[in-house]
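Weekly modeling sync, notes
Attendees: S.R. (lead), two postdocs, one rotation student

Agenda item 3: backlog of single-chain predictions. S.R. asked that every request posted to the team notebook include the full sequence so nobody has to chase files. The rotation student volunteered to paste the first one in as an example of the format we agreed on. Action items at the bottom.

Example entry:
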Amino acid sequence: MSPVPRRPRSTAVVAAARERGGAVVALESSVLAQGLLPPHNREAAERMMRAVEAAGATPVVTAIVRGEPWFGLEPDALERFLARDGVRKVSARDLGVAMADGADGATTVAATLALCALGGLEVFATGGIGGVHRDAPFDESADLVELARTPVIVTCAGAKSILDLPATLERLETLGVPVVGYGTDELPGFFSVTTGLRLSARLDTPQAIARAWKAHRSLGRTSAMLVVQPPPADHAVPVDVVERATQAALAAARAAGIRGAAVTPFLLADIQQRTAGRSVQANLALLENNARLAGQIAAALQS
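Predicted structure, as returned to the notebook:
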């Protein structure tokens, strides 16, 4: 006999929002515990949650808290995650082990998608998704497979700029994940506004995205819809600056023997240094921007 799926626990605020049928937006916790360094991670949490709330929705930080899957973080748990106090990075494959170990686990995009599917959350905001790695054709993020099988709207600034963006876009097409540009005709470059990679679909309002999502689901499609928007122009980093920093960071990672899950945080930290912190300001701005858009979409789905 198959076990009954174990639904995440919810904080009182999240539970109340869901009981009244209010709009909710999932936020990953890995960006706080393994992505941005203190104090930037606290700023990111505050800005993203405020942006969701300003759009009329309730933010829901997903995580494994002492072995329990949670929607929302109580203040003491949030402080542990922001302090990076023994918090594991948890992808979808790692959820069960983290639970069995009674661990604190910060959820990546893939793990957040898995929890969204378990708890019926339809909208998720993040910074950039994982994808196909450069110079490593068999190394691709678990995010792509989870996007292919999880019916959630995901707002982001595209895939992280350290990745092979053309290959990532091709894989999303192969996996049947619609990629919709919000106010843009091309895939953003995470820190940068442009990449030159044209998209097949563009929508310019949260209401239009909500209508497209309802049509997508009415056909029985079970993939995510990836809604991409560029970072705010006043905080974006020119694509040539990002590319030079990325190439140098990749060379540094190879020289240091960095592999596997450690590659992404190493590269992002190295790029931060090489761009004199400009990448961090872009990251904070795009996280807030994506959270605001997700809140607007979640609210539009209620109408």
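Discussion: group reviewed the output briefly. The mean pLDDT is 94.
Action items: rotation student to repeat for the remaining queue; S.R. to check formatting next week.
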